[in-house]
Amino acid sequence: MPTDSRTDAAPDVPLIPAADRGDWSERAAWLKAELNRHSHAYYVLDNPTIPDAEYDKLFRELVSLEEAHPDLVTSDSPTQRVGGKPLPQFEQVRHAVPMLSLNNAFGDDDIAGFDRRVREGLQLDGEAEYSTELKFDGLAISLRYENGMLVQAATRGDGMTGENVTANIRTVRAIPLRLHAANPPAVLDVRGEVLMYKSDFARLNERQREAGQKEFANPRNAAAGSLRQLDPRITAQRSLRFFAYGIGLLEGGAMPESHAALLDWYAGMGLPVCKERAVVRGAAGVLEFFQSIAAKRPKLPYDIDGVVYKVNRLDQQQKLGFVSRAPRFAIAHKFPAEEAMTVVQDIGVQVGRTGAITPVARLAPVFVSGVTVTNATLHNEDEVRRKDIRIGDTVIVRRAGDVIPEVVSYVPELRKDDVREFVMPAQCPVCGSPIVRPEEEAVARCSGGWVKCPAQRKGGLLHFVSRRAMDIEGLGEQLVDQLVDRQVITTAADLYKLGLSALSELDRMAEKSAQNVLKALEKSKSTSLPRFIYALGIRHVGEATAKELAKHFGSLDRFLDASEEALLEVPDIGPVVARSITAFLADPLNRELVEQLRAAGVHWQEHEPAAAAPKPFAGKTFVLTGTLPAMTRDEAAERIEAAGGKVAGSVSKKTSYVVAGEEAGSKLTKAQELGIPVLDEAGLLRLLEES
Ligand SMILES: NC(=O)c1ccc[n+]([C@@H]2O[C@H](COP(=O)([O-])OP(=O)(O)OC[C@H]3O[C@@H](n4cnc5c(N)ncnc54)[C@H](O)[C@@H]3O)[C@@H](O)[C@H]2O)c1
Ligand SMILES: [Zn+2]
Q: Where are the catalytic residues (predicted)?
């Protein structure tokens, strides 16, 4: 009996009719139609409707159905084919050697099976040798070089016929137009992946958003959409990258003996080859590679969805050959999916340490990248509106690395009529104080402050005791919750009044651990000024700013007496931060807290104030225009102002510099007319560094 592959996954959205409801062939037909529809959206339109993990589930279900009932296999089945049809707008290119897919493995057992089949196929006595590399999440491309010159580039298409995207590929700077080789082969088809870095993807989507255009679902789709443009000028603006990993036709040159040697040869000719690659032995070797890459994955600048193992020797590859749509000599070992689909059951709010109200989607439990997720952040109210996420929607949830799970988008075709919009509550759900949102801010806040709002109190206390602040071990969330809820403590100063009896009365608190908490509190009294300032939890004052403040003022009293002007003299402090500090210091309750902490014995070393740092941009006026590649305009303005400069809205003779990003308009023209120096982002950063 074929098993329904969905039962091994976490609680599911009841999206797909259960397999036992209809008859097998009906189910298979439904799966084929559904998979074909999604493939079209994914491969042809670069606009997928469901996450890959959902697609893969349907795909695996069809595979197991076809295995149990081989008569169900038809030539139009997605299990028999590669990719999608080439778009008719492009000239079609027939591949000299077909471009196939890869079989997938999801666990160690799959890998053991693959390794066994390889050894059997090659009749090996010992271990097989594998070349291991990354599975880039982009789109496959075939580059034809004739006598070392790039003459044609084609997408994979349906594997036999692809789209001619030569003009677009020529705009990709990573791809050499000429190979660095004294004696290049007469014909060489280089195969590899075109992809987009995560940072370039984020910037592209920001630009799309500002221009009111459709955002891309992920870097893969952005890369595919950017490459398959009819206008190469658009592709040229999209920062595409490339890694070579395979070969098609070769004429007039000697084929290397191994896959590893092929990649080295490529690298020597100036083709980008990813350095995360190795040659290993046996199943143990590939699994070790898998683990090491899994650990690195969150830090890689591009998305990968797994690693690929290829039998290293090319003669062995040839011997193993192909099955319908994939080689027998290679396998893709996939990571757990980072995206999954589920239903938003409700949208609630969370109150942070500074009172910030974060909308949070309450989800039907769903398994994403190794854990069950029930809550996902929606960041802020504007984000909920922009993404148009509603209660009852089916959504795509993403959890990458250790990052908090977030709702990426809703699935339009599954939206029902009875979905409800999120309404920002008027009152804080924790303390009942009004929620306010200053017009120019993206974040709504509980106006209760820590005095009225237990949520803010808890957040503030947790920040105070955290490792980089006062570093008080043993005071975790559960303990802080109890202390606040039972009104044992109100402020951080009360922590130092805690006695053994009060602590021992709390749930799950043995006398031994209570003593440890007291010891940790005592130890924390001896601290440093930067830690103390950071621990106060002033909005916009992170660790780095706290350090600058401590260095600049040298003593707590000088810091407490600082005016807004004095604060603006501190390196890297601009008006937003200065205002936030003065607001904090103006509140008598905060002053009292500081005094109580000092009275409790919290102490540190002080020193003379640092000589006032020069403000290199003093007297200079800047105008910002266009989209900068890495900074938002607000960030750029804050940095300019922190260096003493002014930011103005329009260009005049008094303007010192114009900082222009992409799509800069009339301000740039005006600057050029007036002969005002124009900087790009890199130029601005250099000026900041040099001065
Ligand atoms: N969300 C959807 O609706 C939808 C629809 C169709 C397909 N998909 C997704 O597409 C994938 C299946 O598609 P597929 O057959 O195009 O490709 P695949 O991703 O399963 O594997 C083959 C491809 O991997 C790429 N690749 C990356 N690194 C490689 C390396 N080092 N060596 C060799 N190849 C490498 C190549 O582009 C190659 O064509 C699945 O993950 C599926 O979930 C999703
Ligand atoms: Zn509140």
A: 135 (n6-amp-lysine intermediate)
From the CA of 243, the nearest ligand is 1
Taking the mean position of all CA atoms in its chain, how far away is CA 478?
A: 30
What is the torsional sign of CA 47, 52, 57, 59? positive
The answer to whether the beta carbons of residues 320 and 328 sit under 8 Å apart is yes
CA torsion 428-429-431-433 (nearest 10°) is 20
What token pair was written down for 612? 């006032």
* Ligand 1 pocket at CB < 6 A: 38-39, 41-42, 48, 50, 52, 55-56, 82-83, 101-102, 104, 133-136, 139-140, 156, 193, 245-246, 308, 332
Domains along the chain with CATH numbers = 5-80 (1.10.287.610), 92-334 (3.30.470.30), 339-436 (2.40.50.140), 452-599 (1.10.150.20), 621-690 (3.40.50.10190)
pLDDT digits (tens, 9 = 90+) for 215-254: 888 999 999 999 999 999 999 999 999 999 999 999 999 9
Of residues 189 and 452, more confidently modeled? 189
Give the per-residue pLDDT at 191.
Answer: 98
Task: Please tell me the pTM assigned to this model.
Answer: 0.73
Specify the ligand 1 atom closest to the Cα of 53: 43
The tens digit of pLDDT for each residue in 389-410 reads 999 999 999 998 778 899 999 9
* Helix axes 52-68 and 24-39, enclosed angle (nearest 10): 150
Cβ atoms of 102 and 331 within 8 Å: the answer is: yes
Exposure of 128 by Cβ count < 10 A (0-12 exposed, 13-18 middle, 19+ buried)?
Answer: buried
What is the spatial distance between Cα 659 and Cα 680, in angstroms, rounded to a whole number?
A: 6
Tokens 């020193």 belong to which residue?
A: 607
Query: Which token pair is 85?
Result: 């049809």
Distance CA 139, CA 156 (A): 8
Q: Is 55 annotated as a binding residue?
A: yes
Q: Where does 120-236 show beta strands of DSSP type E?
A: 129-136, 139-146, 149-155, 161-163, 187-196
Q: How confident is the model at residue 98 (pLDDT cuts 50, 70, 90)?
A: very high
